[in-house]
Design goal:
Strand content: under 5%
Oligomer: single chain
Number of strands: 0
Largest sheet: none
Shape: globular
Mean pLDDT: 90
Length: 166
């Protein structure tokens, strides 16, 4: 699914935006995040290390804002009847993910972000941290470490191990 969405995004933006900017924007998006950014970088034939850096920065950019404001944003959005059900669904999903983190707290948060599976990543980690009231000074470095770990795992699959060692 992520590959299809990424390919669609790349196809629609290629030639209209710089390749690095496409990768950066994809890395910021929920669902696609860093994994999608790395797929896009590979599709756009960008060199690995610069692309990896762009993906990590793009993926981490929304995290402080999510940690600080997501609960208030959700409360505001719930006032609109048309999106209330969607917001409640996202909240419920985040709380379910957060329950897995509760036992091990920061280690659990690291694993939630670092293991590149559907429904994990920086966005999910930030939502879980916000709902568990983990302070930004603790959550942000853990989420950043998780993003880098997920990036290395994804890069090994997308680019291949020899490219990582160059």
């Amino acid at each position: 699914m992520a590959e299809h969405l990424t390919r669609t995004f790349v196809d629609s933006m290629d030639g209209k935006l710089a390749a690095d900017l496409i990768v950066f924007l994809i890395s910021m998006l929920p669902v696609l995040e860093l994994r999608g950014g790395l797929i896009a970088a590979k599709l756009l034939e960008l060199p690995f290390w610069p692309a990896f850096t762009v993906c990590v920065v793009g993926n981490l950019l929304p995290v402080p804002f999510l940690l600080l404001f997501i609960r208030r944003i959700f409360a505001l959005l719930k006032r609109f009847h048309k999106v209330e059900a969607l917001i409640e669904k996202v909240e419920a999903r985040s709380v379910r993910k957060a329950r897995r983190v509760v036992k091990y707290r920061l280690w659990g948060l690291l694993l939630l972000v670092a293991i590149p599976l559907p429904g994990t990543g920086a966005w999910t980690g930030a939502l879980a941290a916000a709902f568990l009231d983990i302070r930004m000074k603790h959550a942000l470095p853990v989420i950043a470490a998780g993003v880098v770990i997920a990036g290395v795992i994804t890069a090994a699959l997308s680019y291949g191990l020899p490219e990582l060692i160059k």
